[in-house]
Design goal:
Distance between the termini: 5 Å
Number of strands: 10
Strand content: 15-25%
Structural class: alpha/beta
Largest sheet: 7 strands, parallel
Radius of gyration: 19 Å
Strand order of the largest sheet: 8-7-6-5-4-1-9
């Protein structure tokens, strides 16, 4: 099993101690987002790899060696997001860009560049964040850490409920075919110059004609060749029609509980509930948000 930590909320940034406590306890519970009384129980002894996805990894760094001591066979993969946006788009995360570059370099040194994915996503366009702006920002970022990463993942902004609510601030302009071509050509040249593969995440816009590589955030080929996994490597089926090429993973996060409140976020779709959910968190709970209830049905998950 591959544990996804997490596509629903930034666990390394905000809930690192909780995650370590679950590793110590040996299992973690996660609610089914579509059936809240159905709880999956995952034992760390069934976990072969953990994909950490975050905009700020530092709160987790002190715990990683301890988790490795507990489970020496579990492999780590890091998806580390650095975008070029300021506080107008990322109210809390904008201040941690420099820190994230430092941590990318340190993690690459310890785990190897093939375990490091730089996420430059989502790409959005408005009067401030233009195509030339992105090209300059991406080139600068790759100059800082490009030699220490194996892969670059990018995507283009989607209009989710949260995005639509923030349109008056975002003031987005639509991408044109020329925009996709420009980004594809320039970004691929920059990434390849640093010996990094670059591909899109769950995008219908195919940039391979403009120089992008074929790949996925955690595809079958990567799981086999880099992680040495062989069992349970089915393509992810929870995102049909998106072009997602990932293997099936177990996401232990929850929606509407990320304090970052980035204006484009798909996982925080109910702004009014974020504060309430964060207040329900306990580092001692088996669940990320709240506690188990008497009418919960707990089912062991092994894949």
């Amino acid at each position: 099993m591959i544990l996804f930590v997490s596509g629903r909320t930034d666990i390394p940034a905000y809930y690192a101690k909780w995650f370590y406590n679950r590793a110590l306890a040996g299992f973690v519970d996660t609610r089914n987002p579509f059936n809240r009384n159905l709880v999956s129980r995952i034992y760390f002894t069934d976990v072969e790899a953990i994909l950490f996805c975050t905009k700020r990894i530092r709160p987790l760094l002190d715990y990683l060696p301890k988790i490795e001591e507990l489970y020496p066979s579990i492999q780590f993969v890091f998806h580390l997001t650095i975008t070029p946006y300021h506080e107008d788009i990322e109210p809390l995360m904008a201040q941690y860009k420099k820190e994230m570059v430092e941590d990318i370099l340190a993690l690459s040194l310890k785990y190897g560049r093939e375990r490091i994915f730089l996420r430059y996503d989502p790409i959005l366009l408005n009067e401030r964040y233009t195509i030339p702006y992105h090209e300059k920002a991406f080139a600068h970022l790759m100059n800082l850490c490009g030699g220490k990463i194996g892969y670059v993942v990018t995507s283009f902004i989607d209009i989710y409920k949260n995005t639509r609510r923030n349109m008056s601030v975002l003031k987005l302009r639509e991408f044109t075919p020329d925009d996709y071509r420009e980004i594809g050509q320039k970004f691929s040249l920059i990434a390849h110059a640093k010996n990094a593969e670059i591909f899109t995440c769950a995008e219908k816009n195919d940039l391979r004609a403009f120089g992008f590589d074929s790949g996925a955030c955690l595809g079958i080929d990567y799981a086999k060749s880099v992680l040495g996994l062989s069992k349970g490597l089915n393509k992810q089926t929870t995102r049909p029609g998106t072009g997602c090429g990932c293997v099936k993973m177990a996401d232990i996060g929850d929606y509407n509980c990320c304090p970052s409140r980035c204006l484009y976020c798909y996982a925080n779709y109910d702004a009014d509930s974020i504060g309430r959910n964060v207040a329900k968190h306990s580092d001692e709970s088996t669940l990320l948000i709240g506690q188990l209830k008497d009418d919960d049905r707990i089912v062991k998950r092994s894949q």
